[in-house]
Amino acid sequence: MAAGEGGGKDVGGAGEMSVTGHGTTVESSLLGQSPDNWRVDRIRDHLSGIVGGEWGDDPDAHDEGVELPVIRVADIRDLDLTVQGLTIRRIKESKLTGRLIGTQTILLEKSGGGENKPVGRAVRTNMVTFDAVCSNFMAKVDCCGTVAPSFVVYTLDALYSSGVNGACIQQTTGIQNLRVLDYLNTKVAFPPVPEQRRIAAYLDASCAAIDAAVSAKRRQLDTLDALRKSIIQRAVTRGIASDAAPEATGNVWLAEIPRGWKLVALKRIAEIRGGLTLGKQYEGKLIERSYLRVGNVQDGHLDLADVSVIELPASVAAGVELCPDDVLMTEGGDLDKLGRGHLWRGEIPGCLHQNHIFAVRCFAHKLKPLFLAYATAAQYGRDYFEATGKKTTNLANTNATKVGQFPIPLPPLAEQVAICAYLDEKTAEVKRITATITAQIETLIGYRKSLIHECVTGQRRVTDADVRALE
Predict the structure, then answer these.
(1) Which CATH architecture has domain 1-190?
(2) What is the mean pLDDT of residues 375-397?
(3) Are the folds of 1-190 and 242-410 the same?
(4) Strand runs (DSSP E) across 256-298, as ranges?
(5) Residue 3: pLDDT band by 50, 70, 90 thresholds?
(6) Helix, strand or coil for residue 250?
(7) Where are the beta strands (DSSP E) in 275-387?
(8) CATH class for domain 242-410?
């Protein structure tokens, strides 16, 4: 396994495919039918070189070779690269042969990936105007003069969006490896080079416009999320009565609350219950139960699409079984997820919770569970858990003591009910608008993929007038 960015295997495949001549029938293209004057070839027939990347050594490790920027998978931005903050490594002279990025170079991700973003993304290198190499998680692919590199990247993107790369992926423990040569043996249709450049220019302008629209929509989502948080913060900490007079608390997390409210530590008005510790071996009669993980408790909702199960004694299950109206609070994960709370309504009968989730059982005469869930989502709640959480390199965590000390602004029960009803109505409105904008984003992304596919297969013919219209 190579050191550095990961254990990406060398570029390779199942061996050379026999070549019986360039195909000319439209059925030969894996992407579907294309115009008769387009030529169907393996992608690699139009490549002058395919070589794996090089991670190199720490610049201070030795004096041999040269210090160069190394393009990593993390530098990929859609079909392009960012050249800001590139990693500098020491590359031996013997490793540089054929690896410097040139004007005809594209990069192909060959190691990494994951369940939601499989390996196989292709990117242009237009932004790399200096000497650089790519890491061992990528393959450097040089295009011949018979193809425009941007057109090849758009074609590979169409293959990726269609899932063609999936047949060339080998899954190992924790990583995916792309059989690069097999993948580049894929047959697609190539128009004449002038038309390739015209298609690429049209897609550059069209995709830029679509991406700008998507970015604007995502900014709207950010604004809506900020609005949701501010609505919750105001209602939970100041109430919904316009004439509520403030009263100082002397507490660093909440300096003021409405007169008549109390500021109480959560442990005084609720029971904080730990969850199931995994990995134990049990003997005797066992039962099977579902249990929740941190990943099931999302911001503002539960994700129950993938719920784990475990076999354990009934007596153990009884001690960690969730009850309706328990508030689930996360113990660990990313810093912004600490203490994230959600109301459990008994969605899965007999469901348990892992020890990285606290089940907070409110005292019915003191605290409404939904009010607590809203308090954990308020900005002061996020500030509390982010400030008191224990941070490590990649993760953060809280504990039962910190959860128990979480300050709750406590109005009378009737006012808690009124505040929750108000927030239900307001947040539902925000969610409705959010869902509409999210659907618009998905439509735009879907249109972008469809547009690329139509253009690189000739289903949509691009003229010079089309390109000029977008300038």
Answers:
(1) Alpha-Beta Complex (3.90)
(2) 85
(3) yes
(4) 256-258, 262-265, 270-273, 287-292, 297-298
(5) very low
(6) coil
(7) 287-292, 297-298, 301-302, 308-312, 327-330, 332-333, 341-343, 352-353, 357-362
(8) alpha beta
Q: Binning pLDDT at 50, 70 and 90, where does residue 285 land? A: very high
Q: Which residues contact 275 (CB under 8 A, 6 or more apart)?
A: 291, 320, 352, 353, 354, 355, 356, 357, 358, 359
Q: pLDDT exceeding 90 applies to what percent of the chain? A: 75
Per-residue confidence at 2, pLDDT binned at 50, 70, 90?
very low
Q: Using CA atoms, how far apart are residues 238 and 206, in angstroms rounded to an integer? A: 48
Q: How far is CA 462 from CA 41, 166, 300, 349, 446, in A?
A: 21, 30, 45, 57, 20
Per DSSP, the residues of 61-76 read: T-SSSEEEEEE-GGGE
Residue among 176, 51, 161, 171 at smallest CA distance from 112: 176
Give the separation between CA 426 and CA 343, rounded to whole angstroms: 17
Report yes or no: 134 and 53 within 8 Å, Cβ to Cβ.
yes
What CA–CA distance (Å, rounded) separates 307 from 314?
19
Output Rg (C-alpha) for the chain, integer angstroms: 28
Are the CB atoms for 368 and 419 separated by under 8 Å?
A: no
Task: Please enumerate in sequence order all residues whose Cβ is within 8 A of that of 269, keeping only pairs 6 or more positions apart, or say none.
Answer: 362, 363, 366, 367, 408, 410
Question: Would strands 246-248 and 332-333 be described as parallel, antiparallel, or unpaired?
Answer: unpaired
pTM for the model? 0.81
Lookup result for tokens 């897609």: 203
Alpha carbons within 13 angstroms on the beta-carbon side of residue 248 total 1
Domain assignments of the chain as residue spans, ordered by start: 1-190, 191-223+234-239+413-471, 242-410
